[in-house]
Amino acid sequence: MITLLESRAVNKRFGGLQALTDVSLKIHRGEVYGLIGPNGAGKTTFFNVLTGAYPIDGGEFVMNGTELPAGKPHRIVAHGVARTFQNIRLFRDLTALENVMAGHHIRTRAGVWGILTQSRTAREEEKLVTERALEILDYVGIGRHADTVARNLSYGDQRRLEIARALATEPQLLALDEPAAGMNATETAGLRALIETLRADGITVLLIEHDVKLIMGLCDRVAVLDFGKKIAEGTPAEVQRDPGVIRAYLGDHRAH
């Protein structure tokens, strides 16, 4: 398997709290990789340092053999890492189409001056961006809502729109932070189908999710964090059998 992303002994501290301690893992190209653990285990912190929202205090992230620029979100997106958020962060007063177009502009070349002057290059590029945004909306299943203002979409469709906006950046790695949170069973099944389609189309997915059934039924491999440390990594079956994981997380799930 080809390694797409590797974290090497990543550390993060907030004051006196050690949020991540020497977290090392490898995500292979084309897989769905799950990151689970109890509340406060460090999952979202890991996402935030990976995507540049927080600087790291030690270690490094390597993407395709190149170290990612720590603490620089726009440059990390340019390297092919895109994310969604546990709490939906859309441009709520823009349409679904406009939200996706906004995501795509990191890949455009016309520049600010070209946009302001509406140069021929800028106009042609805008046409292509619009067409691509419509394709992505269709891909995630909400093409019929292209002209709907984001805040008027259903909760499940807002989740899909956030994925669409991330896809517009043309990522190699799509990091999804609790995408099934708040979804009903039908919406969750649809999300699973979408993630399976992403994998089939060659997009690597890093998934944080509290829905253990979804993680274990979908992911190729899973890592488990507890108190900021990786305590297990392997296939879903291997992780489910790990005594430390059962004590830290899955044991509580199985008890209900």
UniProtKB/TrEMBL annotation:
Domain ABC transporter: 5-252
Native source species: Thauera sinica
PROSITE patterns assigned to the protein according to its UniProt record, in alphabetical order: ABC_TRANSPORTER_1 (PS00211), ABC_TRANSPORTER_2 (PS50893)
Transmembrane segments: none
Endpoints of the signal sequence: none
Key words, A-Z: ATP-binding, Cell membrane, Membrane, Nucleotide-binding, Transport
Protein name per Swiss-Prot or TrEMBL: ABC transporter ATP-binding protein
Coiled-coil region(s): none
GO molecular function terms listed in the Swiss-Prot or TrEMBL record: ATP binding
Domain of life: Bacteria
InterPro entries: AAA+_ATPase, ABC_AA/LPS_Transport, ABC_transporter-like_ATP-bd, ABC_transporter-like_CS, BCA_ABC_TP_C, P-loop_NTPase
